[in-house]
Specification:
Largest sheet: 7 strands, mixed
Radius of gyration: 28 Å
Strand content: 35-45%
Structural class: alpha+beta
Order of helices and strands: HEEHHEEHHEEHEEEEEH
Shape: elongated
Number of strands: 11
Length: 241
């Protein structure tokens, strides 16, 4: 409602004044049913007041149930109290920016702030055995951060990826880079929630094969040792006779 509009206006004004040629990175690590988010904002001109606002009072993960900060509460961070039952991002200062992290369960991930703000439309689906993340209708984050140059998304998962449109894939991580020229660029990744990633599966299979080979070698060694004892015993017995 009105608080949401006011909050966005104030946030946009602050970012417009303080962000100059900055870049943002959103990293998402999916393991089992936990979605771990890491948001990095680089080259951000952090004044003492803004440090106090962001570092002392990180934004909540669940924006549905949290009343938005109005102007007075935004410029007077000491008066802001965290609401019980709401998860908050852990925000700390980096060399020249901010790093925010949060662990979110699968059922609540669709309400997460970063990707909802990053794209005009965002869908997170969990149906049958599949999980999909779909950001479409172009990036919206550049409308909020006027001096943001680029926005990178990095997703890694322990599940088997069945479909994706990443710009590149390196060591099992999926990368998307968005700029102001990417008006219609989309993000899509689909995973089979019942299967582990091929690389992890291969490592487990290799480990299992190694155990089987070791077990066979141990078995052969035991059989050979027992055979040696039996032959040696018979040989000694025959010599006595």
């Amino acid at each position: 409602g009105g608080k949401l509009v006011k909050f966005k206006i104030v946030l946009l004004a602050i970012c417009t004044l303080l962000l100059s040629g900055c870049t943002a990175t959103y990293e998402l690590n999916i393991k089992e049913n936990t979605f771990t988010e890491t948001v990095k904002i680089n080259n951000m001109n952090l004044t003492d007041d803004i440090k106090q606002v962001y570092l002392t009072n990180p934004m909540p993960v669940d924006y549905r149930e949290t009343c938005y900060l109005d102007y007075d509460r935004l410029v007077k961070p000491n008066e802001i109290e965290k609401e019980p039952g709401i998860n908050y991002y852990n925000i700390k200062e980096s060399d020249n920016g901010l790093i925010a992290t949060a662990d979110i369960q699968l059922k609540n991930y669709k309400y997460s702030r970063p990707l909802n703000y990053a794209f005009v439309n965002m869908n997170v689906n969990n149906y049958d055995n599949y999980i999909s993340i779909y950001g479409f209708d172009g990036p919206a984050i550049f409308n909020m951060y006027n001096n943001l140059d680029s926005f990178e998304v990095i997703i890694s998962t322990d599940k088997e990826v069945t479909d994706q449109n990443a710009d590149k894939v390196i060591d099992g991580k999926y990368y998307w880079t968005f700029t102001r020229e990417d008006e219609d660029k989309e993000l899509y990744i689909e995973m089979d929630s019942t299967k582990i990633a091929n690389e992890k599966k291969k490592k487990e299979m290799d480990k299992l094969q190694s155990l089987v080979i070791i077990s066979i070698l141990i078995g052969i060694s035991i059989i050979a040792f027992i055979s040696f004892l039996v032959i040696n015993f018979k040989h000694k017995r025959n010599n006595k006779i």
